Amino acid sequence: MSSFPLLTVTAVVPAVGAIATAAVPAARRTAAKWLALAFSLATLVLAGVIAARFTPGGARYQLSESHAWIADFGVRYELGVDGIAVVLIGLTALLVPFVMLAGWHDADVLEEHRPNRNWRPTQGFFALILLVEAMVVIAFESTDVFLFYIFFEAMLIPMYFLIGGFGDRAGAHSEDEQAKQRSYAAVKFLLYNLLGGLIMLAAVIGLYVVTAHQLGHGTFSLPQILQARAAGQLHMSTTAERWIFLGFFFAFAVKAPLWPLHTWLPNAMGEATAPVAVLITAVVDKVGTFAMLRYCLQLFPNASNWATPVILVLSLISIVYGALLAVGQRDIKRLVAYASISHFGFIILGIFAMTSQGQSGAALYMVNHGVSTAAWLLVAGFLISRRGSRLITDFGGVQKVAPLLAGTFLVGSLAILSLPGLGPFVSEFLVLVGTFTRYPVLGVIATFAIVLAALYVLVLYQRTMTGPVKAGIESMKDLRLRELVVAGPLIALLIFLGVYPKPVTNYINPAVKDTLSDVHKTDPAPQINAVAKETAK
Amino acid sequence: MTTATAASIHSLWTTLADSTPGAAGASTSTLFPAPKIEYAQLSPVLIVFGVAILGVLVEAFLPRRTRYTAQLGLSVVGLAAAFAAVVALAADGYASTKSHIAAMGAVAVDGPALFLQGTILLVALVAAFTFAERRLDPAAHGSRVDSFAAQGSAVPGSDQEKAAVKAGFTTTEVFPLLLFAVGGMLVFPAANDLLTLFVSLEVFSLPLYLLCALARRHRLMSQESAVKYFLLGAFSSAVLLFGVALLYGYAGTVSYGGIADVVNGSAKLTPALANSTATDALLLIGGAMVVVGLLFKVAAVPFHMWTPDVYQGAPTPVTGFMAAATKVAAFGALLRLLYVVLPGLRWDWRPVMWGVAILTMVIGAIVAVTQTDVKRLLAYSSIAHAGFILAGVVAVSPDGVSSVLFYLGAYSFVTLGAFAVVTLVRDAGGEATHLSRWAGLGRRSPLVAAVFAVYLLAFAGIPLTSGFAGKFAVFKAAAEGGALPLVIIGVISSAIAAFFYIRVIVLMFFSEPRPGGPSVAIPSPLTSGAIGLGVAVTLVLGVAPQYFLDLASKADVFVR
């Protein structure tokens, strides 16, 4: 049983599902939807099995698999999960079924004009979602830098088709203009991320050259490199380490996204349908922050410490800038995108504060941000598709017409502004405390962003849900059963994570401890301030 | 003394000239030694040339209606037999332990030569399928037609041409022409002296000039492209030949090994030249001119001007064949020249090749951005790819050689397949190559568009395609050879290049189909096979490249 390749299977199941879904005949498109949903649920079960078989606090990488792959490049097919990877695989597997349910009818518009007999947009939509899931899962699982890189890059392609092919129909006025904006967003998404990825490719090659020179054989295996460094066989020169670190960090900063490399996200999230936007921000972008934690810090501890001041400032700018721009948005989905940029700033701040609370908080933040954004944005998507518009000014008084919709939207909104009792509060608090213990000034500035968050969230709610019922809203229908099935469990999960986050932190904390010891950091000792000292005397 | 030097460096070409002076005492039988030819080791080349000549006889003696079948059958069997001969030679150890120089120093039989010959033969086999495609164009006067002119000699638009079309003529001569070109290409990367290099260059270039002129549609454009190709090709041949003469003047021999010995100082210069002070100039100028001749064939900047026009005007199956096979052959010859003849001059040519590689990558990628014609776009993309391959060439290491070999193999199948797809998208005027005509292709024929997208992603070097494995291999070799700046410029121009590949994908999938747009012809199994094979190779080399990398790294040592 121990040789059962659980991690491989977890990634292969959605990939097989993608092929199976794509192969469903054009006429049976409802069957294709159910098939895709079944595969995503099977993946969720497998993710649960991974979590159950993983021993928190045990070996650093568990359930490992290792096979030769491309010996010439020193590449191995190596998988293994630490606690953070387990949690993020769980998040991915959990969100994808909701994304599918929420996007149940997203491809129907394209079914109207059938250019030929083999036209199968529904099958394509669901197959692409499963393909993204498979690639994200294997990116979280891999412990070989090259293997990770391959899927980090490859996932752009299905994502690109999801954004460009199945755009939101509620944006611009004319069909033509919509198509133009959509393909602009898709191309911008792809080019930004491809550029980041290609810069990373140069760094990956650099890493190979360094290991090949010093170990005699080039390797990309994370455990091997860490072991060699611990044994003193591998010592990167300061310059080499910094350059390679920058190459990696650039790619992850584009993906995450960090200011000033963020500009693709509002376009992509604005033009994609709400479920696809959730897939981008809640699932795919997590690979960027996850990779900072796993690759940047572990492979290049000295360079990470060297770059920390700049990165902290950039993440602080992200937090404040994202929140400020969110306040000024007129388009609901772009507002969510800027809010996400602000939240990614928090995650990166937590990672590079280099304290155990900060990093635990950041890892937990990834989960909470995923769930809360999914809840918020998917409900917003229901709202947008009902009215056929993304403009805030087109809404008003929805809570009188569709109370369930307004209620679930409110809970999602409150989660985004980190109301105590809901999941995001715990992680945001941890990040702020973790930052404050080492960098009090940064912690204080970041705290102000919470006020801005309250502003953009509540103003959005007030303008869309309260007040007099606007024209075009009167006949708005409340949430259907399918939509309740999406919103209900996500809200329940937010409350659960807010009240009892221990099951998740159990997985995260040991992994964070390992990472911190890699970067030679310990938590700052608690300080008793001068006044307290005086009184003690 | 003179005779000893001459004897040690004589070759198939210089035997007579070298053995005349100072050999007064020798009998005539030693003056004219019978050339020693290793027929078995040259069998791939001989088979191809033999079949080509048979093809000419078929043209002369068989009735017109049976020629097509006979020619296609003959070409396929001949190319397959030659490929089998290459495999047999490689299996026999000629790629590694038994590699040596055959035909009195004229032709090398070694790893790189056999690897490239195998690649060229496979490419030619697939190209022969696309040459033979007869279902794309509507039948003219009841007979099926291919991409080639009814009668090459008929003036476009003349009565003679109309009569030829009406009579259902087809130019089945393209098959022997293809085979002659292939024969020359087989020798080109294996050539081990400068004259063999030149002769094989001409042998494969002349049939290509002809093939370029033979398009059925847009005949004037096709002829224009052939003239351009011929004039510039002849010019570059002249430059190459001049370089050969200068190198001979420098070293007193045309054999690669002989020149290398003189460059390294392990063999003496000819006494007449040893006292002259101009020898280094002869070497540098001669070497540079030969390299320029080869860079012209690989379409490296600044010798790339012919590429877009020729690629656009030539019949698309010919373009695909040219883009794939010529590049393979010419890079093989360039590698051998730089690694066998001029390694002693490494410090002189490396900086220059750095510059050429950078220019080629950057200009190829940037100029491609503004293209509006699919064939021109692919032409500029092939220029950018030549730049990436040059990055592997300047690595000057066995890894560099094997990475270039791998890249060539991977690239040639992608490019062949991509041009085969171009032949499918047609309207009333033949192939619809203007990019705006491709709008919405993904809606109308998802499969063809998806296949083309796979090729474009491979060109762009997206992971899990052969393009990525190849790019990684050459960049890795370059970085290990200390050319990290080249790698960084390489990835940046890859990003620029990605832009225009993606633009085509956007056009195909995210634009609404225009009314009256082109239709996608249903090809015969010949073209489908070529395209399918291309996709299969692209994905296999992308996901599991190890076997082929092994093959390439076993074949990375040049014989001397």
From TrEMBL, chain A:
Compartment list: Endomembrane system; Membrane
E.C. numbers: 1.6.5.11
Keyword annotations from UniProtKB, A to Z: Membrane, Oxidoreductase, Transmembrane, Transmembrane helix
Predominant location: membrane
Molecular function via GO: oxidoreductase activity
Spans through the membrane: 6-27, 34-54, 83-104, 124-140, 146-168, 189-210, 243-261, 273-294, 306-328, 335-356, 362-384, 404-427, 439-461, 481-500
Protein name: NADH-quinone oxidoreductase subunit M
InterPro entries from the UniProt entry: NADH_Q_OxRdtase_chainM/4 (IPR010227), NADH_UbQ_OxRdtase (IPR003918), ND/Mrp_TM (IPR001750)
Membrane topology, as annotated: Multi-pass membrane protein
Record-annotated NADH:quinone oxidoreductase/Mrp antiporter transmembrane domain positions: 142-452
Similarity annotation: Belongs to the complex I subunit 4 family.
PANTHER family cross-referenced by the UniProt entry: NADH-UBIQUINONE OXIDOREDUCTASE CHAIN 4 (PTHR43507:SF1)
Signal sequence interval, chain numbering: none
Alphabetical list of NCBIfam families matching this protein: NDH_I_M, PRK05846.1-4
Lineage top rank: taxon: Bacteria
